[in-house]
Amino acid sequence: MKNRIISFSLCVLMFMSSLIFPSGAVSVEDFCDISSGLECYGAIKWAVEKGYMQGTSESEFSPALTLTRAQFAVLMARFAGTDLTLYEGKRAFDDVPANSWYAEASVWAFENGIMKGTGNGRFTPDKVITRQEIAVLFNNYIGFTGIKVEKKIPDTRMMDRGSKRAAPWAKDAVELMHKTGIMPLDENNCFYPVEKVTRAEAASLLFSLQSAFDSINEPREKKVIAYYLLGRYANHAELKDVDVLNLHPVKAHGDGYIDEDGLSNAAFIKESGEKYNPDLKYCVCIPVNSGADIEKWMDSYADCDDFADNIVDIVARYDLDGVDFDYEFPTGSVPQKNLHYLLGSIRRKLEALGTGKDYIVSMAIAGGAWSFSLFQDLGELQHYVDYLNYMDYDLRSEAPWPTTYNHCAPYDSIYENASTYADVLLSLEAGVQREKIILGCGMYSQDWQDVHSTDTVGLYCAATPNNAAPTYYNVYRSWINYEMLDKGTAFPSNGGYYPYWDDTAKALSFYNPHTRRFMSGDEDRSVEEKCKMAVKDNLGGLMFFDYTFTAGARDWIGTEIRLFEKVKGWMNPDKNE
């Protein structure tokens, strides 16, 4: 025991001296105890070159030495690029002398919520740090930065047992580090939360944390996805700027019947579309009449498999490229594991077709915290689909009606968390991978009636929803004279509706003071705002409902809009420079 204490003290002194008097080594090649064949060689090389870690001498890195809490505080301060002179002379803990080599780092870590004490005003600087402590520290640091890391790993049952389990105070952080891939499990699904961390492991963990941050900004393909109403013809020339076409409606009923009659013209749509875009993918959209109806298919895993068999049979017979599962009205009564099993079963059965196709499994969901909560965990749901199509285009309001309504808004206005961007933030908070977030554009408007307003704006008023047929984009867009609108000219468009642009919500609305009806839906400018959103936050792209009511649209003077072409340009600005 005495020799271990002496050895440990020597290690601390060696590292302390390397902090105060940096070693002469400036490259990992200078260390005799680090070889290029070492598993963590790249991480150590990176940590040394960045100046986050130094050698314990001019010729040694000492990869097997463990790290103390004080050492890790200094390491994290360096990683954060902190100006520690701002913390000189401060004290946060009774057992940290103001003149110690780690004093400023401990104060920085404490004041920013990155490292807490060990109780009774103590920091316990010489205590060797464990994996679960680093998990908590990393979790706190991520919160400090405000960066939304992605959950890239599906939930896995950790097999650490007994005294080797994570402590209650570390459990959530350990789970997050596993799901983000920053601190992965081993081949036996063990995390080893109480294991002490060596210098080599610390370099690897820090490199992994940086990689999680870097991956957020990695270039991601921006998709344009459009729904296509079967039985309706549209100008297929604009399909050249669409990546995936979801054919709808092919309704699934709770009695075990899938109505696929509309797919009778799928071959014609494909033949025509491929003239303009041979790379276009075609998916069958399986929407439902109600959440309760579709949930009859998810009572058990056996029911899920039967449903998956029917869907995959349709995909195979019509030679399609996948399925979009439209689950707009969940009741919240189905266990999430059953939904996950259904989506997983569809994917397994598609792959079992053996066609060599890279089949798509996507899912359309309504926007809003209420909708997201019914799926229980978007961060986990995402692992069962290629992407999520967010239906971020219906008017938002608060029940009971009559009530005050909001725009179909890219950004929040009077309601908090009532916009497309609010859904983006909620999704990122849940850990959804950015390329799986597809922002929806609704090229129509369901209007509100009996609006209690005396002006020509009619916004944020008490009213009741009108469930009559919506006004679609081709008509809606032809009412917009942006030149007059930008001048602030109050003019009635076709039908006696006055347009109004809300620059906070980035949304257009129309109000007819004579009929007391209000409308708001997506058009050129709000779609452009969503494209900017997709670029700024590095998201997966945009979805349109519906192609058949958007293609061929013309403006108020009769010029073709070609919105899909615009969207491709807006989401790929670098290609236009």
The major sheet is characterized as:
8 strands, parallel, barrel
Q: Nearest-angstrom radius of gyration? A: 29 Å
Described by the principal axes of the CA atoms, the overall outline is: globular
Largest sheet: spatial strand order: 1-2-3-4-5-6-8-16
What's the total number of strands? 16
Percent helix range = 25-40%
Structure classification: alpha/beta
Low-confidence stretches: 1-24
Q: How far apart are the first and last residues' alpha carbons, in Å?
A: 68 Å
Number of helices: 18
* Oligomer status: single chain
Overall pLDDT level? 90
Give the DSSP E fraction (strand runs of 2 or more residues).
5-15%
What can you see in these coordinates?
- The chain is of the alpha/beta class and 577 residues long.
- Helix content is 33%, strand content 13%.
- The protein is built from 18 helices and 16 strands.
- The strands form four sheets. It has an eight-stranded parallel β-barrel with strand order 1-2-3-4-5-6-8-16, surrounded by five helices. Strands 7-11-10 form a three-stranded antiparallel sheet, with no helix packed on it. Strands 13-14-15 form a three-stranded antiparallel sheet, with no helix packed on it.
- Helix 8 links the parallel strand 2 and strand 3.
- The longest helix has 19 residues.
- The termini are far apart.
